[in-house]
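Technical annex B. To support the medicinal chemistry partners, we prepared a structural model of the target in complex with copper (II) ion, based solely on the information shown next.
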Amino acid sequence: MVKLLSAGALIFLFSASVMAVEYEDHSGMLMDHGDGHLMDMAGGMVMGQNTSTLPGGCDSISETKEITVHAGHKYAEKFPGRMFAFDTQEFNFKPCTKLTVHFFNDDNVRHQWMMHGLPKYLYPKGMFHLEVSGPAKISGTLILPPGDKTYLVHCDIAQHMEKGMKAQLKVGKGDGDLPSIPGITAYVVPDDYKGSLSTVMVSTAAAAEAASAAAAKPATAADKAAPVAQQPKEDDSAISGVTVIGLAIGLLLAPFLAKKFKGMSPAEVIATIFDLIRSGIGFVIRLLSNLIKRLASNKNNILPRN
Ligand SMILES: [Cu+2]
């Protein structure tokens, strides 16, 4: 125990002097809530702690490993466009390894080292999870399952993974690479710095969908206009809502139709008109259901007063 404490103190002193950051060590203050859930008063947290139960398929612990992982803004500096990162993006361990993670949060915000996809009979929600508000350190232990599999490790604080705090942990050979791991795999939604409006629009899924099918155009207009029609609560708002939708469709359709029918065979023109009518009917149905909803809600409003 004394040995452990002094080793911990040494690590603490060493990292504090090297990094010039004073980490609050949460590992000694944790309260065990059972089920591998440990917490302290400062919000340090370990979930899915498992130091002794072997996952199914493991006859014994193959190896005992300890790693130190840092999380912070500065580790993202080498990845253009990223804001947060771990200092390591890929981990690799033998199946059935007993792994202790010493997690250092270098930032003055909250970060997590959250691993997903673990067997749920052993790890609540299939997760092993370290979390601490920095600058601070927290440690936890788990036993990795057997087999070749790639596990997602990330920080689940809103937008931290999207901003770069994402890694993969391969057990055995793993089973492939995950997308958007900084420095390892391609970003799923690559940024385009050309700056032209058309490329910006194509990069959004909604615009791509609208461009892919001509018939989708009136539907898009209806979708955009619908919230406008739903907002007002007065009776006469139905008329202004319809007017707004009509105007929106008219504006969108006029140049579209002119372009669309140019150089078309009669059969193609008919097919296009059919498409438009079909999506137009869908739009009218939606409009009617909106009106009915509004009438129903008005009725409800009036009834209690009488
Ligand atoms: Cu984070």
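Notes passed to the chemistry partners:
Confidence is low (pLDDT under 50) at residues 12-19, 199-208, 213-236, 302-306.
Residues 197-305 form one domain.
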